[in-house]
């Protein structure tokens, strides 16, 4: 028994399933989760001191690489002045100003501590603003684990549960609550038009991942986004872009900057905190001013705008704003995906790839899927074999075929070449 097995056995005694978030548990692929001891740049080391090239980067946040010296210094400096005040600081204003500058649709922003809090609060705000209850979400999109959003949800719910029923994806979620959640297929314009035609004036909000990253990576068609923007505007519903995953990862201005869409509200997290518990939601001032203490929509948090997390976020945003950052990140990620595809082709394995900025998807299928249904038809057994062969070779992929992958600016030519060499060996072994 190795040290990872020892720790996993010990963890399961006091932590349900041995993990603090289900996607870490290797449930789809089998085997023992790796217990991390340290990380630097594109690498982390496990409890057996084996080094891995990290291709999840904490599921997105670590876009400048692990333990970037400038971020570490900023965090240390902030930590020395206390971890939390529960009172406002100038750093919060600076971070809010920076977020509004980088995403012009965000006129005002409020900070929270996790992506779940951001989407949950945005939804409450949209309902408070419109005085309506109904919301629309899309199959396979995951917006954190707030009750209303756990219907046909992606991420861990797609990996572990039966997400094929139009019922709560999780136990503990009242049917009475999710009856206000309408679920439509991603990229289905006709379904969207139909719902707005019949119930448009009762819809508070449409929430979506503008590039879905919780059912592998799925891109939206531009007609789908265009229809969504015009239908929500016409019927007075709030369009919520959940950019927790895509914000500052696919481009400096998020997916909305690539798509030319101006949402009413945007949810942010992951990269904006540089790996600290930090998230935000923001958008039109007219809507944001409905929040307490100005308006009657309540939302709060002891650690919201936490000074250490603000320092980490501000420094991370500074680094990613430097000239050439996204050009380099995008080129390296594309090079990686092209290399993986070539290696699979050589081994005659049906394989497709996609990427946007520093976010990628690969699929054991002959073409890139465009919907939740297509993703569930990809070859999961082939994925499992590939996952374990890559793990043996020292490359850590998301332990599920239903999650996107993430690179960082530290994934340079040498690292990309090492991943491709590992993949050539892995495909041969399959
Ligand atoms: N799709 C997975 C994630 O975004 C990470 C959050 C989690 O642990 O569920």
From TrEMBL:
The keyword Glycoprotein does not apply. It comes from the Bacteria. InterPro entries: 4pyrrol_synth_GluAld_NH2Trfase, Aminotrans_3, Aminotrans_3_PPA_site, PyrdxlP-dep_Trfase, PyrdxlP-dep_Trfase_major, PyrdxlP-dep_Trfase_small. The keyword Metal-binding does not apply. The modification N6-(pyridoxal phosphate)lysine is found at residue 270. Keywords: Cytoplasm, Isomerase, Porphyrin biosynthesis, Pyridoxal phosphate. One of its GO terms (cellular component) is cytoplasm. Its cofactor is pyridoxal 5'-phosphate. It catalyses: (S)-4-amino-5-oxopentanoate = 5-aminolevulinate. Its main location: cytoplasm. Homodimer. This is Glutamate-1-semialdehyde 2,1-aminomutase. The gene is hemL.
């Amino acid at each position: 028994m190795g040290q990872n097995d020892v720790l996993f056995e010990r963890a399961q005694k006091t932590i349900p399933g041995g993990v603090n978030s289900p996607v870490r548990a290797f449930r789809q692929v089998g085997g023992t989760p790796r217990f991390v001891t340290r990380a630097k740049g594109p690498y982390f080391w496990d409890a057996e001191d084996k080094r891995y090239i990290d291709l999840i980067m904490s599921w997105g946040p670590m876009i400048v690489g692990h333990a970037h010296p400038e971020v570490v210094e900023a965090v240390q400096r902030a930590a020395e002045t206390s971890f939390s005040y529960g009172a406002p600081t100038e750093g919060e204003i600076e971070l809010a100003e920076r977020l509004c500058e980088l995403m012009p649709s965000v006129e005002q922003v409020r900070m929270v501590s996790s992506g779940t809090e951001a989407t949950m609060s945005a939804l409450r705000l949209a309902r408070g603003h419109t005085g309506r209850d109904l919301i629309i979400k899309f199959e396979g999109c995951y917006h954190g684990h707030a009750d209303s959003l756990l219907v046909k949800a992606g991420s861990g719910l797609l990996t572990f549960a039966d997400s094929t029923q139009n019922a709560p994806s999780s136990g503990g979620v009242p049917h009475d609550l999710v009856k206000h959640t309408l679920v439509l297929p991603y990229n289905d314009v006709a379904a969207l038009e139909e719902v707005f035609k019949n119930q448009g004036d009762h819809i508070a909000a449409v929430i979506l991942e503008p590039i879905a990253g919780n059912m592998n990576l799925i891109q939206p068609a531009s007609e789908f986004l265009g229809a969504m923007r015009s239908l929500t505007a016409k019927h007075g519903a709030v369009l919520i872009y959940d950019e927790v995953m895509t914000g500052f990862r696919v481009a400096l201005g998020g997916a909305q900057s690539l798509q030319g869409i101006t949402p009413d509200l945007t949810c942010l997290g992951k990269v904006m905190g540089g790996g600290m518990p930090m998230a935000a939601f923001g958008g039109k001032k007219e809507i944001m001013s409905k929040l307490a203490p100005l308006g009657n929509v309540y939302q709060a948090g002891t650690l919201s705008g936490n000074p250490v997390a603000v320092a980490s976020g501000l420094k991370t945003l500074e680094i990613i704003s430097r000239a050439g950052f996204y050009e380099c990140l995008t080129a390296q990620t594309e090079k990686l995906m092209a290399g993986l595809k070539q290696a699979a082709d050589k081994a005659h394995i049906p394989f497709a790839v996609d990427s946007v900025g520093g976010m990628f998807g690969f699929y054991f299928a002959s073409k890139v899927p465009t919907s939740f249904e297509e993703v569930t038809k990809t070859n999961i057994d082939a994925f499992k074999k590939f996952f374990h062969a890559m793990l043996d070779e020292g490359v850590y992929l998301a332990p599920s075929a239903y999650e996107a992958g993430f690179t960082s600016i530290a994934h340079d030519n040498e690292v990309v070449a090492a991943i491709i060499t590992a993949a050539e060996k892995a495909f041969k072994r399959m």
